[in-house]
Design brief:
Elements lengths: L1 E3 L4 E3 L19 E7 L14 E7 L8
Antiparallel strand pairs: 1-2, 1-3, 3-4
Length: 66
């Protein structure tokens, strides 16, 4: 995943938990960010190559609010 805020960019990678979710942590200033999932892999599935992009907002407590 790549997270950008217009001036900075951060790249993350991780494995999912048993429930299929993954959590990334970034200590950053409140503001608007764009999260883009650029690659997903799994031993039993093939990735379709589609990129998923989502706008999100980080509040003063570090929580995504949108």
């Amino acid at each position: 995943m790549t997270l950008t805020d217009g001036t900075s960019s951060w790249n993350f990678s991780s494995d999912t938990g048993l429930d299929g979710t993954v959590k990334f942590t970034l200590k950053a200033q409140p503001g608007n960010y764009i999260a883009e999932v650029t690659y997903v892999s799994h031993t039993e599935y093939d990735w379709d190559g589609g990129v998923t992009t989502k706008n999100c907002q980080l509040d003063e407590n570090g929580n995504i609010t949108q």
